[in-house]
Amino acid sequence: MYRSVFSRRSLLFRLYCLLQELQRESYPGVTRLAELLEVSPRTVKRYVEALRDDFSAPIAYDRQRRGYYLEKPWSMPFLHLTEGEALALFIFLNLTRQFRGTPLEDALHRLGEKLKLMLPEGLKMNPQEFDMFLSPLLTPLAMRVDVRETFGKVFQAITQRRRILIRYYGLSSRTESERKVDPYHLYNFEGVWYFCGFCHLRGEIRDFALDRVRWVEVLQESFSYPQDFSPQRYLESAFRMYRGERVRIRVRFDAYQAAWIRERVWHPSQEIEELLDGGIVFTVWANPEEIKRWVLGYGAHAEVLEPETLRESIQEEIQKLQKMYHGDRK
Question: What is the DSSP code (8-state) at residue 208?
Fold first, then answer.
């Protein structure tokens, strides 16, 4: 009854038809299902495994009747994706790559395998083929430290609103310290996982990189979120990653670099003033150290106008670079 439509249908439709045969309680065997679905016996076995392993269908094999059956009543929804929905699915699958090395990796992989079954037959492709025509994200940095256990404990503490005790390696101080933290939010920045929360040692909200957490313990102590805390507003407060001190910074970009700067929104607080020579003055409220690194990346195409302390800091950095590249390398 399905023979004339299989060439146009997705894999999900074939699985749906296979399930209907099992629901008839006729104990269909591999040969019969292969003929019915117009596929090979090997493919039939793969379909059965997909229903049983990916969708938890209670399928069993009766050796006496030489056929499959359902051990208990079971059904699955039948969905059909449009091309636009299929593209959105591929983007979703690409975005889940940032969860590699976390406790969510396996669950998201299983979900992705189930969702792939909903693709129309004409849109079947593997991740490598998808990467040929669309890259939703830049390739994230690879973590050198396994943060799976740390991620799981911090995530548990956030969902249960439990305080944690951590031993943390500070990059600037290059020392380890023990801290109690009320964890508020987990986030990913350029492939690295962080969480922000109230640090009882410092008396303020701080950011912690998971790969620098030496160990973590979820305590029985509970905490409450501050009424005025918003993860979105908190993350937007930084130009990129640095929070804390924020000052008004003005940077002049020449005409060459201005074309790149003006076509993007770098920060919600930014203002752009057009200059007669085609350049711009870019104004933003941000952390000076972070802007310093950003500006140096543009070389002679960018000049900090104010504050004066940031200009002096960049001048010192340039002098160090001059000594480094003009000095004796022997």
Answer: E
Q: Are 59 and 68 in contact (CB under 8 A)?
A: yes
Q: How far apart are CA 136 and CA 157, in angstroms?
A: 31
CA atoms within 13 A on the CB side of 82: 2
Residue 214, token pair as written in the block: 């030496």
User: Helix (H, G, I), strand (E, B), or coil: what is residue 51?
Assistant: helix
**3-class DSSP state of 265:** coil
Burial annotation 162-177 (CB, 10 A radius, 16+ → b, else e):
bbbebebeeeeeeeee
| Radius of gyration in angstroms for the set of CA atoms belonging to the chain, rounded to a whole number | 28
Render pLDDT for 8-62 as a digit per residue (tens, 0 to 9). 455 767 887 888 888 888 899 999 999 888 889 999 999 999 888 878 889 999 9
Q: Which residues contact 30 (CB under 8 A, 6 or more apart)?
A: 41, 44, 45
Contact 57, 21 (CB under 8 A): no
- Could you tell me the pTM of the whole model? 0.54
**75-115 tens-digit pLDDT:** 765 455 666 666 666 667 666 766 777 777 777 777 776 66
Report yes or no: 162 and 221 within 8 Å, Cβ to Cβ: yes
- Do the Cβ atoms of 136 and 95 come closer than 8 Å? yes
